[in-house]
Amino acid sequence: MQVLDLIGIGIGPFNLSLAALACPTPLRTAFFEKESGFDWHPGLLLPNSRLQVSPLKDCVTLADPTSPFSFLNYLAVHGRLYSFVNRCDATTSRREFTQYFQWVAHQLPQLRFGEEVTDVTRLDEGYRVTTTRDHYHARSVAIGVGVVATIPECAKPWLGEKVYHVASYLDRPQIDIGERVLVVGGGQSGAEVVEHLLGSPGIGKITWVTSRGNLFTRDDSSFINVSYTPSYSQRFHSLPLKKRRTIVDDEKLTSDGISAELSNRIYESIYHRSATGNIDDVIQLLPAVVMKELSPHADGWHALLASHGTCQRPTVVADRVVLATGFEPRPLAFIDRLLASASMEGGLPVVKDDYSVQFEDNAPGQVYLQNRSPVQSGLQSVNLSLVAYRNGRIINSLLRREYYLNVPDRPILGCLGLLPAQETQNAR
What is the average pLDDT score of the chain? Predict the structure, then answer.
């Protein structure tokens, strides 16, 4: 049986990028995905959904600007490059970026859709990977199985056509005229749903609740974006665990807030409605509250809310409940078994600066973690900002040489207590 250099488990944007960057190298790879083709949160592809990062942060560009798998080449191949650059907009829609991802996927023969990995066993020389079709051997594996919806406990018994996570929003029946909708969650996806509901003809009352103290916008200013550079990532990785946890908490709104553009559009919509009628009949915004209970009644779903810092426990009645309550790593038993022998720090597996797990016995072969380690590797490890840089590091680790040049950036702003001049000197 042929021994592969790398098997990728799951084909989302992160492992798709890894496959694209591995393509021109001598590495023998295979990537497995249970779904029949590539898709990227299809239930969330609303008409106004925008990509939250620069489209240059695609599968390959920041590791190899000459790669044929870049977003700019995708535009050129489809005759849209000039049309794109002539737009007064530096970003694009999530729908177009999904189409770009699918275009990349169609060109990579090592991607095997419709074949799910069911087990991974550690061997002396690497890993035995079992799928729904066959067994394979590889020296290393990259885990990129993605995320699943986070569901509040009180809503789990009632999931269905009228109570559901935002990830399946477009898969559910359209909103009926006069329907009252409760949206739980104050992040980007919740805001996108609220904007969509505000534009739905005949919508009843919208109630939008969030546990946060306000509908906070995402901070993506130029200086803040230093947090999503290679030098920042490397510096973050060298810090003690306690400090890394603090930074992840402090910087949460660099990736987890509402885009300012969307926030302003929603505010404008609410404002103009308030000028023509009673806005309380259209939308109610409730910050600093959590949904404690949810139960069905003859007149609709009753959601018992609890207000932070007060004894108030109002009840909202709705015909439909949309849970914009985030995502969490997909739990898989074989991943837990695989990581059981990892070196641990604060209850988490230690992740090295090449994004591989450190094992106690230092056996040959690596396990690379994609989209599972924000405390170990920073918030950039769970979004698209440094996906090409990260996967370039993984390729270099597999080849044991610098195939993709690790050229340090020279940040204008010092990061995490390290001055820019010191970084420049250290890079020489």
Answer: 91
